[in-house]
Amino acid sequence: MKIVVVGASGNLGTALLRRALRDQDAAHQTPSELELVGVSRRAPLAAEPYSSAHWHEIDISRAAAADRLRSVFTGADAVVHLGWALQPNRHEATMASTNVRGTRAVLDAVAAADVPQVLVASSVGAYSFGPKHTRVSEDWPTGGVQSSHYARHKAINERAMDAFERAHPGVVVTRIRPGLVFQPDAAREIARLFAGPLVPVPLLGLLRRLPALPLPTSLVSQAVHADDVADAFWRAIDRRAGGAFNIAAEPVLGPAEVAEALGVPRAVPLRRQVLRALVDVSWRLHLQATDPGWIDLATSVPVLSTDRARAVLGWEPTVSSTEALRQLVDAFAADRGHRPSASLRG
Protein backbone atom coordinates (compact mmCIF):
# COMPACT_ATOMS: atom_id res chain seq x y z
CA MET A 1 0.00 0.00 0.00
CA LYS A 2 1.31 3.44 -0.97
CA ILE A 3 0.14 6.43 1.06
CA VAL A 4 1.21 9.95 0.10
CA VAL A 5 0.90 12.65 2.77
CA VAL A 6 1.06 16.27 1.62
CA GLY A 7 2.20 18.47 4.50
CA ALA A 8 3.64 15.45 6.27
CA SER A 9 6.11 17.40 8.41
CA GLY A 10 3.49 19.49 10.21
CA ASN A 11 1.39 18.99 13.33
CA LEU A 12 -1.07 16.49 11.86
CA GLY A 13 1.42 15.01 9.41
CA THR A 14 3.80 14.05 12.20
CA ALA A 15 0.97 12.36 14.09
CA LEU A 16 -0.18 10.52 10.98
CA LEU A 17 3.30 9.15 10.33
CA ARG A 18 3.44 7.95 13.94
CA ARG A 19 0.05 6.28 13.49
CA ALA A 20 1.15 4.55 10.30
CA LEU A 21 4.27 3.20 12.01
CA ARG A 22 2.20 1.81 14.88
CA ASP A 23 -0.09 0.07 12.41
CA GLN A 24 2.87 -1.30 10.49
CA ASP A 25 4.47 -2.66 13.65
CA ALA A 26 1.21 -4.20 14.86
CA ALA A 27 0.69 -5.96 11.53
CA HIS A 28 4.37 -6.92 11.23
CA GLN A 29 4.45 -5.30 7.82
CA THR A 30 7.70 -4.75 5.97
CA PRO A 31 8.55 -1.31 4.53
CA SER A 32 7.72 -2.66 1.05
CA GLU A 33 4.18 -3.55 2.17
CA LEU A 34 3.48 -0.02 3.44
CA GLU A 35 5.13 2.73 1.43
CA LEU A 36 4.89 6.16 3.07
CA VAL A 37 5.65 9.18 0.93
CA GLY A 38 5.97 12.64 2.45
CA VAL A 39 5.52 15.91 0.55
CA SER A 40 6.74 19.08 2.19
CA ARG A 41 8.16 22.43 1.21
CA ARG A 42 11.31 21.34 3.02
CA ALA A 43 12.09 17.79 4.06
CA PRO A 44 12.51 17.37 7.85
CA LEU A 45 15.49 15.86 9.60
CA ALA A 46 15.95 12.11 9.12
CA ALA A 47 14.59 11.04 12.51
CA GLU A 48 11.51 9.07 13.51
CA PRO A 49 8.78 9.28 12.45
CA TYR A 50 10.05 11.21 9.42
CA SER A 51 12.70 8.67 8.45
CA SER A 52 9.95 6.15 7.70
CA ALA A 53 8.86 8.13 4.62
CA HIS A 54 10.36 8.89 1.23
CA TRP A 55 10.39 12.67 0.87
CA HIS A 56 9.70 15.05 -2.00
CA GLU A 57 10.24 18.78 -1.61
CA ILE A 58 7.35 20.47 -3.40
CA ASP A 59 5.84 23.88 -2.72
CA ILE A 60 2.15 23.36 -3.47
CA SER A 61 1.63 27.12 -3.84
CA ARG A 62 3.65 27.16 -7.07
CA ALA A 63 2.05 27.10 -10.50
CA ALA A 64 3.84 23.90 -11.51
CA ALA A 65 2.88 22.01 -8.35
CA ALA A 66 0.14 19.88 -9.93
CA ASP A 67 2.50 18.40 -12.51
CA ARG A 68 5.10 17.54 -9.89
CA LEU A 69 2.48 16.11 -7.55
CA ARG A 70 1.02 13.92 -10.30
CA SER A 71 4.35 12.14 -10.65
CA VAL A 72 4.56 11.58 -6.88
CA PHE A 73 0.93 10.43 -6.64
CA THR A 74 1.20 7.84 -9.40
CA GLY A 75 0.52 4.38 -7.98
CA ALA A 76 -0.78 5.71 -4.66
CA ASP A 77 -3.68 3.99 -2.91
CA ALA A 78 -4.55 7.18 -1.03
CA VAL A 79 -3.42 10.80 -0.85
CA VAL A 80 -3.80 12.70 2.42
CA HIS A 81 -3.76 16.48 2.04
CA LEU A 82 -2.70 18.32 5.19
CA GLY A 83 -0.78 21.25 3.70
CA TRP A 84 -1.82 24.62 5.12
CA ALA A 85 -0.42 28.09 5.82
CA LEU A 86 -1.50 30.10 8.88
CA GLN A 87 1.08 32.82 8.36
CA PRO A 88 1.76 35.47 7.16
CA ASN A 89 -1.79 36.42 8.12
CA ARG A 90 -1.20 40.04 7.11
CA HIS A 91 -0.86 38.87 3.51
CA GLU A 92 -3.90 36.76 2.76
CA ALA A 93 -3.01 36.30 -0.91
CA THR A 94 0.22 34.58 0.11
CA MET A 95 -1.64 32.21 2.42
CA ALA A 96 -4.32 31.57 -0.20
CA SER A 97 -1.70 30.48 -2.72
CA THR A 98 -0.99 27.51 -0.42
CA ASN A 99 -4.40 26.98 1.15
CA VAL A 100 -6.65 27.42 -1.88
CA ARG A 101 -4.50 27.10 -4.99
CA GLY A 102 -2.45 24.37 -3.30
CA THR A 103 -5.58 22.34 -2.54
CA ARG A 104 -6.72 22.64 -6.15
CA ALA A 105 -3.28 21.46 -7.29
CA VAL A 106 -3.56 18.42 -5.02
CA LEU A 107 -7.04 17.57 -6.32
CA ASP A 108 -5.96 18.05 -9.94
CA ALA A 109 -2.98 15.76 -9.39
CA VAL A 110 -5.16 13.12 -7.69
CA ALA A 111 -7.42 13.04 -10.75
CA ALA A 112 -4.51 12.98 -13.22
CA ALA A 113 -2.79 10.14 -11.35
CA ASP A 114 -5.99 8.09 -10.95
CA VAL A 115 -5.67 7.89 -7.17
CA PRO A 116 -8.73 6.04 -5.77
CA GLN A 117 -9.04 8.05 -2.52
CA VAL A 118 -8.14 11.55 -1.38
CA LEU A 119 -8.47 12.63 2.24
CA VAL A 120 -8.44 16.34 3.06
CA ALA A 121 -8.01 18.07 6.39
CA SER A 122 -10.96 20.41 6.62
CA SER A 123 -11.99 21.89 9.97
CA VAL A 124 -14.70 22.98 12.35
CA GLY A 125 -13.71 26.36 10.89
CA ALA A 126 -15.39 25.45 7.61
CA TYR A 127 -18.82 25.58 9.25
CA SER A 128 -21.12 28.59 9.16
CA PHE A 129 -22.29 30.30 12.34
CA GLY A 130 -23.96 27.69 14.55
CA PRO A 131 -25.26 26.83 18.01
CA LYS A 132 -23.19 26.29 21.13
CA HIS A 133 -25.95 24.58 23.14
CA THR A 134 -26.72 21.73 20.70
CA ARG A 135 -24.51 19.65 18.42
CA VAL A 136 -24.52 19.71 14.64
CA SER A 137 -23.76 16.89 12.21
CA GLU A 138 -21.71 16.96 9.03
CA ASP A 139 -24.62 18.34 6.97
CA TRP A 140 -24.43 21.75 8.70
CA PRO A 141 -23.68 24.49 6.12
CA THR A 142 -19.98 25.02 5.37
CA GLY A 143 -19.96 28.69 4.50
CA GLY A 144 -17.29 29.60 7.04
CA VAL A 145 -17.05 32.77 9.12
CA GLN A 146 -16.29 35.55 6.67
CA SER A 147 -14.18 37.71 9.02
CA SER A 148 -11.72 34.81 9.43
CA HIS A 149 -9.21 34.10 6.66
CA TYR A 150 -8.87 30.55 7.97
CA ALA A 151 -12.61 29.93 7.74
CA ARG A 152 -12.90 31.58 4.32
CA HIS A 153 -10.18 29.35 2.88
CA LYS A 154 -11.66 26.21 4.44
CA ALA A 155 -15.09 27.07 3.00
CA ILE A 156 -13.61 27.70 -0.46
CA ASN A 157 -11.94 24.30 -0.31
CA GLU A 158 -15.21 22.64 0.66
CA ARG A 159 -16.69 24.00 -2.58
CA ALA A 160 -13.64 22.77 -4.51
CA MET A 161 -14.18 19.29 -3.06
CA ASP A 162 -17.89 19.46 -3.97
CA ALA A 163 -16.92 20.22 -7.59
CA PHE A 164 -14.26 17.51 -7.58
CA GLU A 165 -16.75 14.90 -6.40
CA ARG A 166 -19.16 15.82 -9.19
CA ALA A 167 -16.42 15.67 -11.82
CA HIS A 168 -14.77 12.49 -10.50
CA PRO A 169 -17.44 10.24 -8.97
CA GLY A 170 -15.07 7.25 -8.97
CA VAL A 171 -12.72 8.87 -6.44
CA VAL A 172 -13.53 8.51 -2.74
CA VAL A 173 -13.33 11.97 -1.16
CA THR A 174 -12.93 12.04 2.63
CA ARG A 175 -13.19 15.26 4.62
CA ILE A 176 -11.92 15.21 8.19
CA ARG A 177 -13.23 18.19 10.18
CA PRO A 178 -11.51 18.36 13.58
CA GLY A 179 -11.80 20.88 16.34
CA LEU A 180 -8.65 22.52 17.71
CA VAL A 181 -5.76 20.08 17.30
CA PHE A 182 -3.17 19.90 20.09
CA GLN A 183 -0.09 17.84 20.83
CA PRO A 184 2.97 18.61 22.98
CA ASP A 185 5.43 18.05 20.15
CA ALA A 186 3.85 20.94 18.23
CA ALA A 187 4.05 23.43 21.13
CA ARG A 188 6.84 25.53 19.65
CA GLU A 189 5.20 25.61 16.24
CA ILE A 190 1.81 26.57 17.68
CA ALA A 191 3.40 29.26 19.84
CA ARG A 192 5.22 30.72 16.87
CA LEU A 193 2.13 30.72 14.66
CA PHE A 194 -0.28 32.27 17.18
CA ALA A 195 1.90 34.24 19.61
CA GLY A 196 4.67 35.30 17.26
CA PRO A 197 8.43 35.71 17.71
CA LEU A 198 8.22 38.39 20.42
CA VAL A 199 6.54 36.11 22.96
CA PRO A 200 8.89 33.54 24.58
CA VAL A 201 7.33 30.08 24.50
CA PRO A 202 7.79 29.43 28.28
CA LEU A 203 5.86 32.64 28.99
CA LEU A 204 2.73 30.95 27.64
CA GLY A 205 3.12 28.32 30.34
CA LEU A 206 2.46 31.02 32.93
CA LEU A 207 -1.22 30.89 31.97
CA ARG A 208 -1.45 28.27 34.72
CA ARG A 209 -0.48 30.84 37.35
CA LEU A 210 -3.22 33.34 36.65
CA PRO A 211 -5.55 33.98 39.61
CA ALA A 212 -8.50 34.04 37.20
CA LEU A 213 -9.01 33.47 33.50
CA PRO A 214 -11.00 36.23 31.73
CA LEU A 215 -12.89 34.76 28.75
CA PRO A 216 -16.15 35.52 26.93
CA THR A 217 -18.96 33.10 27.71
CA SER A 218 -19.41 32.59 23.96
CA LEU A 219 -15.85 31.28 23.65
CA VAL A 220 -16.93 27.65 23.52
CA SER A 221 -14.86 25.26 21.43
CA GLN A 222 -13.77 21.67 20.99
CA ALA A 223 -10.30 20.21 21.00
CA VAL A 224 -8.70 16.91 20.12
CA HIS A 225 -5.24 15.40 20.38
CA ALA A 226 -3.35 15.16 17.08
CA ASP A 227 -2.89 11.40 17.56
CA ASP A 228 -6.66 10.94 17.70
CA VAL A 229 -7.12 12.94 14.49
CA ALA A 230 -4.43 10.83 12.86
CA ASP A 231 -6.29 7.72 13.96
CA ALA A 232 -9.43 8.99 12.23
CA PHE A 233 -7.50 9.53 9.00
CA TRP A 234 -5.96 6.08 9.21
CA ARG A 235 -9.30 4.38 9.87
CA ALA A 236 -10.82 6.21 6.89
CA ILE A 237 -7.98 4.95 4.70
CA ASP A 238 -8.34 1.41 6.00
CA ARG A 239 -12.10 1.41 5.37
CA ARG A 240 -11.92 3.59 2.27
CA ALA A 241 -14.65 5.63 3.93
CA GLY A 242 -15.86 8.71 2.11
CA GLY A 243 -17.79 11.77 3.15
CA ALA A 244 -17.25 14.17 6.03
CA PHE A 245 -16.34 13.28 9.60
CA ASN A 246 -16.44 15.60 12.62
CA ILE A 247 -13.59 14.79 15.02
CA ALA A 248 -13.49 16.16 18.58
CA ALA A 249 -12.87 14.93 22.10
CA GLU A 250 -14.88 15.49 25.25
CA PRO A 251 -15.68 17.63 27.12
CA VAL A 252 -16.70 20.72 25.19
CA LEU A 253 -14.38 23.53 26.30
CA GLY A 254 -16.15 26.52 27.75
CA PRO A 255 -14.42 29.09 29.99
CA ALA A 256 -14.88 26.96 33.13
CA GLU A 257 -13.44 23.84 31.48
CA VAL A 258 -10.45 25.77 30.11
CA ALA A 259 -9.73 27.26 33.53
CA GLU A 260 -9.96 23.85 35.17
CA ALA A 261 -7.69 22.27 32.56
CA LEU A 262 -5.08 24.96 33.16
CA GLY A 263 -5.38 24.77 36.93
CA VAL A 264 -6.61 28.37 37.17
CA PRO A 265 -8.96 28.83 40.15
CA ARG A 266 -11.83 30.32 38.18
CA ALA A 267 -12.99 31.89 34.94
CA VAL A 268 -14.45 35.39 34.92
CA PRO A 269 -16.68 36.80 32.15
CA LEU A 270 -15.10 39.16 29.64
CA ARG A 271 -17.07 40.92 26.94
CA ARG A 272 -16.32 39.45 23.53
CA GLN A 273 -15.95 42.93 22.04
CA VAL A 274 -13.30 43.81 24.64
CA LEU A 275 -11.26 40.68 23.93
CA ARG A 276 -11.54 41.22 20.19
CA ALA A 277 -10.42 44.84 20.51
CA LEU A 278 -7.40 43.85 22.63
CA VAL A 279 -6.40 41.18 20.13
CA ASP A 280 -6.93 43.54 17.21
CA VAL A 281 -4.83 46.36 18.67
CA SER A 282 -1.98 44.08 19.76
CA TRP A 283 -2.02 42.39 16.34
CA ARG A 284 -1.93 45.72 14.49
CA LEU A 285 1.01 46.79 16.68
CA HIS A 286 2.82 43.53 15.80
CA LEU A 287 2.97 42.55 19.47
CA GLN A 288 1.47 39.12 18.78
CA ALA A 289 0.53 37.08 15.70
CA THR A 290 -3.16 36.24 16.23
CA ASP A 291 -5.52 38.36 14.14
CA PRO A 292 -9.02 39.17 15.49
CA GLY A 293 -10.68 36.83 13.00
CA TRP A 294 -9.71 33.94 15.27
CA ILE A 295 -11.90 35.41 18.03
CA ASP A 296 -14.81 35.67 15.60
CA LEU A 297 -14.24 32.07 14.57
CA ALA A 298 -14.01 30.69 18.10
CA THR A 299 -17.17 32.45 19.23
CA SER A 300 -19.20 31.58 16.12
CA VAL A 301 -18.60 27.99 15.01
CA PRO A 302 -21.04 25.31 16.21
CA VAL A 303 -20.42 22.44 18.60
CA LEU A 304 -19.88 19.23 16.64
CA SER A 305 -21.47 15.83 16.92
CA THR A 306 -18.97 13.01 16.33
CA ASP A 307 -21.61 10.29 15.98
CA ARG A 308 -20.77 9.54 12.34
CA ALA A 309 -17.05 9.02 13.01
CA ARG A 310 -17.88 6.69 15.87
CA ALA A 311 -20.40 4.69 13.82
CA VAL A 312 -18.62 4.51 10.45
CA LEU A 313 -14.96 4.56 11.47
CA GLY A 314 -15.25 2.93 14.89
CA TRP A 315 -13.36 5.99 16.12
CA GLU A 316 -13.09 7.00 19.77
CA PRO A 317 -10.81 9.68 21.25
CA THR A 318 -8.14 8.34 23.60
CA VAL A 319 -7.22 11.74 25.11
CA SER A 320 -9.77 14.12 26.61
CA SER A 321 -9.93 17.69 25.35
CA THR A 322 -8.89 19.02 28.75
CA GLU A 323 -5.90 16.67 28.90
CA ALA A 324 -4.84 17.65 25.37
CA LEU A 325 -4.97 21.32 26.38
CA ARG A 326 -3.13 20.61 29.63
CA GLN A 327 -0.36 18.74 27.78
CA LEU A 328 0.07 21.65 25.38
CA VAL A 329 0.39 24.26 28.13
CA ASP A 330 2.83 22.00 30.01
CA ALA A 331 4.88 21.81 26.82
CA PHE A 332 4.83 25.61 26.56
CA ALA A 333 6.21 25.87 30.07
CA ALA A 334 8.98 23.35 29.30
CA ASP A 335 9.68 24.94 25.88
CA ARG A 336 9.12 21.50 24.43
CA GLY A 337 8.46 20.41 20.88
CA HIS A 338 10.04 20.46 17.48
CA ARG A 339 11.66 23.66 16.33
CA PRO A 340 9.60 25.55 13.76
CA SER A 341 10.47 24.77 10.17
CA ALA A 342 12.66 27.19 8.28
CA SER A 343 9.64 28.57 6.49
CA LEU A 344 8.22 29.81 9.83
CA ARG A 345 11.35 31.60 10.97
CA GLY A 346 12.36 35.15 10.36
UniProtKB/TrEMBL annotation:
Species name: Herbiconiux aconitum
The NAD-dependent epimerase/dehydratase domain, residue ranges: 3-248
InterPro entries (UniProt xref): Epimerase_deHydtase, Lipid_A_modif_metabolic_enz, NAD(P)-bd_dom_sf
Organism domain of life: Bacteria
Gene3D superfamilies (alphabetical): NAD(P)-binding Rossmann-like Domain
Name of the protein this chain belongs to: NAD-dependent epimerase/dehydratase family protein
